Each structure stands twice: as structure tokens, then as C-alpha cells.
Amino acid sequence: MKLFYGPGTCALASHIALQEAGAEFTAIRVDFSRNEQRQPDYLQVNPKGRVPALVTDRGVLTENVAILAFVAQRYPAANLAPLGDPFAFAQVQAFNSYLASTVHVAHAHGRRGYRWADDQSSFDDMKRKLPETMGACFDLVERAMFKGPWVMGEAYTICDPYLFTIAEWLEGDGVDPARFPKVHDHRTRMYERAAVKRALATEGRG
Amino acid sequence: MKLFYGPGTCALASHIALQEAGAEFTAIRVDFSRNEQRQPDYLQVNPKGRVPALVTDRGVLTENVAILAFVAQRYPAANLAPLGDPFAFAQVQAFNSYLASTVHVAHAHGRRGYRWADDQSSFDDMKRKLPETMGACFDLVERAMFKGPWVMGEAYTICDPYLFTIAEWLEGDGVDPARFPKVHDHRTRMYERAAVKRALATEGRG
């Protein structure tokens, strides 16, 4: 398999999960500074022009929520999700879907406001509001969603690399991570995991 | 089970899926015109203050992507997803995650710009751009994602009610649905399904 990623992007979540699963794959860097994600070669892989994209022998998968569930189901021995329990599995998917459709989206307004507006004044407005929106998201995660010690409780799941990936953006978004002690402690423990170290090293952050 | 929904919201996707599955549930209307989704009673059900929320005997599930997968897994006889095939299941989840985190998000900028900005000029800017962003999303669905006759091909899945639900917003977002013949034909065929008729009737649109 091949995982297309950009350093500092949300693709890190899928990258870590593949490492946790012991999957055989090659990580291929997409250079966002040269806009490679919008070039014809990459658009043939993923017409959305986004990362992550996971190339398998069956075809290409996109979207972290889907790739993470795929890794958990494809490598059941890694115990990355409660596969035999539809309710518990849905809780995992609900957490990850919240990260994808609310938290990541809030973050994107800091730098990619052009997706939804045209005027510089709108981009400035969005950027000003970013600490408030990201802070509100992580307040909800800390207060109402995070079970501890891992996101879903005693068992490490595909929620953990995704939360870690997005929590790493807090400082850059003007939010003090110390406001969220459980999430902050989680992040510290994630750095100690071998799979996280391998993924970060591959992405040039070792 | 109880499904909390608001008429005209994305909760219709989960509502239709529950009808398709033959699930026993009660649909409970949340009155957005009275801001009920932000009142303490509802925030106890879903601290996010959003719909859908599905109350089960195990607890509450939120997020369409998760509820739809739950319905498919909990009612396997309804054949609403390729449950035994991790790759095919991930394709279903990828499609639904795109709807949740890109298409629904694009739509939300038309009326709920206050989530990401503060100034009226930004809201006006977002609203102006809405036909372009929603049009681009549906162009990609039509051109690169929709297999036909159903979203995933020959088999009706949990992708179909979700696409139908969001495609119903096109006119209101200033996009001519006739630009997307496959999606438009899909929507016409969806209206003919008994489960869709029942869900729409329950929501007062029968």
C-alpha cells in the first residue's frame, strides 16, 4: 500500500494507525509548498486534491474517518477498534467524524478561508475567531467526550492518533493546550509510542 | 430508540436509514425556530446542540457518519452496507465522510457563517460564494464518485439517504440540480421509496 501525506496535515492520523497495525506500506510525501496536491499526477490518485489517500490493491481510499476504520478492520489483531460491537464501533466513528467535520473544519478557517469566501476581510475575520472556535471544540472534547486514559477509555483505538494529530495544531491556532489537561496529557503519552515515533520520523520530524 | 431530528436538517439521512432497516424508533422533533437545540434539556441528550442524535439503550450516538454505520451493522438483514468487506465498507464511509466534512460544511456557510466569523460582511461574502462551492462539490460527486444506479453501484447503501438529504438543499443554495443528471435522477428515484416517504411524512412533508 502507499499512503500519500503532507507533513503537518491530518494525514498523520492515518500514518500512525498504519504503523500501529504493523501494515506494510510506503509513505509518499506530497509537497504542499509546491502545490503538488493540485497537479494532474496527484489528482489521478485523489480527485479531491487532498491528503490522506491510501492506495491499496483494491483501489484508493480517502478521508481519515474511512481509512482509520479500514486499518482497524483490515488488521483486527492490532485491536484498534471494538469491531464486534456495533454501538461501541459507532462511538469511535462518531468521535472521529466530529474531529473531521467540526474540529478540522474550524482549524481550516485559520489558513484556508478561501475555500468558503473571497475577500481578505473575511479571511482576517475567520483568523481572528479561530482561537475561540478551536477552544470551544477542545473544551467539549475535554469535558464531554474524552474518557481516559485513551479517548475511548482503557483501550487505545483509532480515535487516539486522530485526536493527537489535531491537538498538535492548538498552539499554531492561538490556543493554550494547558487549558485541556486530559488532552494535553494524552498528547504527551502519544509521543512515547513507538508507532508515533516512527510516523513522525518518516515525516521528517524524528 | 429515539431519533432527535429537525425538519430540513441532515438528520433526515439517519431517519431514512432507520426506516429502511425496519428499526423500532420514535422520531422526536427539535424546534430550531425556538432554538430548542440549545436548551438545557436537549444539551443533556447531545452536548453539541446538533441533530441527529440517536438515543439507544446503550447510550446516545451522534454524527450521521456514525449513526448510518450503526444502523447498517445493527440491522444486517437490511443489507445497507457491505459489512463483510473492509475495503468496500471504507468506500461507503469515505463517501459519507466527504458529505459530512466537505459538502455539508460548504452548505452551512450559507446560513451559519457565525460559526466561523463575526462580521456581517464575512457572512455576505460566504453566502455569495455558496453556489460555487456547493456546485464544485456536486460536480465531483457526479463526475468521480457516483457509480449508479445507486451511489455505490448496484446495491442501495447508507450513502443513498445521505446524498439524497444534501441534494435536497441545492435549489436553496442557488445551484441548479439539472447540472448533475445522475444525482438528479437518483433524487427522483429516492422519492419513490417507501422508507423515504415514511420519513418525509413523519417530518411533516408527506
Description:
The structure is a homodimer of 206-residue chains. By secondary structure, chain A is of the alpha+beta class. The first copy, chain A, has two domains: 2-78 and 197-202, Glutaredoxin (3-Layer(aba) Sandwich), CATH 3.40.30.10; 86-193, Glutathione S-transferase Yfyf (Class Pi), Chain A, domain 2 (Up-down Bundle), CATH 1.20.1050. Helices cover 51% and strands 8% of the residues of chain A. The first copy, chain A, has eight helices and four strands; from the N terminus they run E-H-E-H-E-E-H-H-H-H-H-H. Chain A has helices at residues 11-21, 40-45, 64-74, 86-108, 120-145, 159-167, 181-191, 194-202; strands at residues 2-5, 26-29, 53-56, 59-62. In chain A, strands 2-1-3-4 form a four-stranded mixed beta sheet, covered by helices on one side. In chain A, strand 3 (53-56) and strand 4 form a beta hairpin. In chain A, helix 1 (11-21) runs parallel beside helix 3. The longest helix of chain A is centred in the middle third of the chain and has 26 residues, at 120-145. The first copy, chain A, is globular, with a radius of gyration of 17 Å. The two termini of chain A are 22 Å apart. The interface between A and B is large, with 48 and 48 residues.
Please state the second-level CATH architecture of the largest domain in chain A.
Up-down Bundle
Largest sheet of chain A: 4 strands, mixed
Overall tally of structural domains of chain A: 2
Strand portion of chain A? 5-15%
Number of strands of chain A: 4
Q: Which secondary-structure class do the elements of chain A indicate? A: alpha+beta
The 3D shape of chain A can be described as globular
Describe the oligomeric state of these chains in a short phrase. Answer: homodimer
User: Overall pLDDT of chain A, averaged?
Assistant: 97
Helix content of chain A: 40-55%
User: Looking across the biggest beta sheet of chain A, what order are the strands in?
Assistant: 2-1-3-4
Greatest contact between two chains: A-B, 48 and 48 residues
